[in-house]
Amino acid sequence: MPRFQPLVREPYPHPTLPAAYILPLHNGQTAVIDAADADRVSGTTWVLSQASSGKKPYVCASLRRGQEPLALARLVAGVTDPTLQVGYRDDDHTNCRRENLVVQTNSERIRRSRKRKLTTSRFKGVSLEKARQRWRASIRIDGRQMTLGRFKDEERAAREYDEAAAHYFGDHARLNFPALQRQAW
What is the C-alpha separation between 156 and 38, in angstroms, rounded? Predict the structure, then answer.
């Protein structure tokens, strides 16, 4: 008989979100799931994983040492293919409601990545061409860099990038102005 028995905390209804449940995690934090998934996750100890190499922690099942962790988002999204990944629309890794999850390939995940900190602009897809004193909007599609135009205004260049990203990447685009994302679809 093992000396340590993990404490399993059962999901309970969310007080303000209809059809959502709160899933208590082992470390005292919580995750949010749909009511339809409450039975599937019951009886398992869920934890917020330790972040490695700068990645955000994610919710996973607490398993025995040596076993591959079971990610809650993959379970909820029904993803078993190891080449597919599950992303979060709102970037909150504890929000595992189906409407927040996006099943994506590695290429699609990269398209949805944040702006690199090395660029001169505060917007994704925009850089300053010092010689011309113009902001250049560009996007990478299927490994090829495409220049969208050069602009006097940094924000105008960012909006041009958003238009192209929404067109080419759809649901997997990370836009500079997310409020406009829903209008693009």
Answer: 45
